Structure prediction request, 502 residues.
Amino acid sequence: MPAKSATVISLHKRIRSEIEQHILTGEWPPGHKVPVEHELMATYDCSRMTVNKVLTELASEGLVQRRRRAGTFVSKPRPPATLLQIPDVKAEILALGASYALRMLSNQIRQSDPSDMRRLGVMTAREVLAMRYVHIADSAPFALEDRLIDLSTVPEARAADFTSDPPGTWLLAHVPWSDAEHRIRAINGDPEITGLLDLPANAACLVLDRQTWRGGAPITAARTWFPAESFHLVARFQPGSNAGKAHNNQA
Amino acid sequence: MPAKSATVISLHKRIRSEIEQHILTGEWPPGHKVPVEHELMATYDCSRMTVNKVLTELASEGLVQRRRRAGTFVSKPRPPATLLQIPDVKAEILALGASYALRMLSNQIRQSDPSDMRRLGVMTAREVLAMRYVHIADSAPFALEDRLIDLSTVPEARAADFTSDPPGTWLLAHVPWSDAEHRIRAINGDPEITGLLDLPANAACLVLDRQTWRGGAPITAARTWFPAESFHLVARFQPGSNAGKAHNNQA
DNA sequence: TCTTGAATTATGACTAGACAAATGCAAGCT
DNA sequence: AGCTTGCATTTGTCTAGTCATAATTCAAGA
Prediction:
């Protein structure tokens, strides 16, 4: 009988956070097989119900997937919650039945300057991949995107090919994230923006700022301009356990 | 020993959905005490672990709150997920340190016309409360709102006083919801809108369409216009178990 | 009256089993 | 080779308890 005294934190919480760590740090990448319940029983010297509780929780949150006889596997970074699907502009365009193309306007690897550091919310310099490109649907500009990727968090991005999949789609498919933030607002477009989107000067645009983290480390910061009137965001949801806090601000 | 054969659906799922029904239909209003675990054990003729699993799940999703010795209670409709806090414009304005006021432009109870029915997504006529008003922050227009409340779902709204709390705030505090949908877009405001918000003609606005349901029944449909540049929406979230599906559309 | 402290009660955590259901795999058959 | 079938593995669900912990209630004492 395992001693249970002196455990300040409950056992299942400890097991849970250890497994989460394995997944979040990338030590257990998507598709990796999590040890079966009997192994975890042995590892943590506890009963099956305890590890089952943990794995069931993680599965209900989508972090892992479980299949009888097969086992438990780390989920692929999921196309997720609420407003999150939107950043995959390529998938959205294809879903509309249009053809997708990417026009890269600029693309460089550089040391982060103060403005980059502010966008990523970090204090120290690092290498970043900075890009600006236009999403093209059926030969017409669909959205303009300005993106920064933190290469110290996502070194794989250095070798990624963004001609078939745009950076947002590539990141969704390859990098698991633990936190995200969206800022949405409307602007009267300035000539630089409207010009790239083939819009009349002063046309309204929907601007989506998106930032993601993995653990505490920044993954990417992106700003996307969508032409107004031709585009809107939809989100459906249940009250659920969303721990995220939402608020709005005046600039 | 309870028979477990012939149960096509698992026991804890059945218990769970029954309790959810009690809450969602309003039979167990916010603050209502859920039977203690031993009572539920007797009701469903099962072990404590089974009802505990159900109640723990519901608690983790925020539907109920549990306190040792006190018991389990239905949660107050929570100021919830992702972008949901935004609709409480009054709270947002007060949080900014400004004074709040409501200017009611129109307010009537009527049989729903075809346009109302489309907004609420229903096929049959019913009584609705239709309002248009401006949220005022420090004597200046902050947002314009057009709202429809389905009085067959929320008969209490008939007697509600919207001079201190605007309808959105009142609903958040009084009516639990099970589903919501947001549509967000930017528009170049037409003169009617910009006039009411003291904006130059053609100024960009952020438009938020919000609709909520309880069970399958519509609660309310609201459209809010926010001046661009002075306002943005922020949402932070984790990948979590958000069952909601999100997508975007072209109009 | 106010405070302290103990009894009570409900949840929280966990165990050590049980049987059911699904499914991947391999052995055997065609 | 391709197909079927049975078996072993793994998760899914559930039981009937134990001990721990928090918090409310209530009564005794200052």
Remarks:
- Residues 1-7, 241-251 of chain B have pLDDT under 50 and may be disordered.
- Residues 4, 36-38, 52, 55-56, 66-72 of chain B lie near DNA strand C (CB under 10 Å from a C1').
- The first strand of chain B starts at residue 33 and ends at 34.
